[in-house]
Write a structure and sequence with these properties.
Length: 127
């Protein structure tokens, strides 16, 4: 029933931009947390960006702060990630995650363990 569909990935050169989108469907709870994570083979999963459903405060991983911007369209249950000035180290599979709102994820969307995950969209940055 609950599905997350990511889109917008691709192959770009360093310095270029991409905009990822994630559509949440089948989730009828009134409030939920959503975030972006990424992972490359042999590397630990890394939190990229998230939004608190209560305050709309934006949270970013240190490695993307200042370059990536997360936004959401609550009515459409869509999450976006604008990625500017992409670097080779940004190469990874990017995943959208969602879960019902809780004290933990409202306080910091980058820390909680999420229940629902999308299949991912690949981002490749190379010269």
């Amino acid at each position: 029933q609950v599905q997350l569909a990511e889109s917008g990935g691709g192959s770009v050169q360093p310095g270029e931009s991409l905009r990822l989108s994630c559509v949440l469907s089948g989730y009828t709870v009134p409030s939920y947390c959503m975030a972006w994570f990424r992972q490359s083979p042999g590397r630990e999963r890394e939190a990229v960006a998230g939004v608190s459903p209560t305050t709309t405060t934006r949270f970013y991983g240190d490695s993307v702060k200042g370059r990536f911007t997360i936004s959401q369209d609550t009515a459409k249950r869509t999450l976006h990630l604008q990625m500017n000035d992409l670097k080779p180290e940004d190469t990874a599979m990017y995943y959208c995650a969602a879960d019902r709102a809780s004290v933990a994820c409202v306080g910091d969307p980058l820390q909680p363990e999420y229940t629902y995950w999308g299949r991912g969209t690949q981002v490749t940055v190379s010269s």
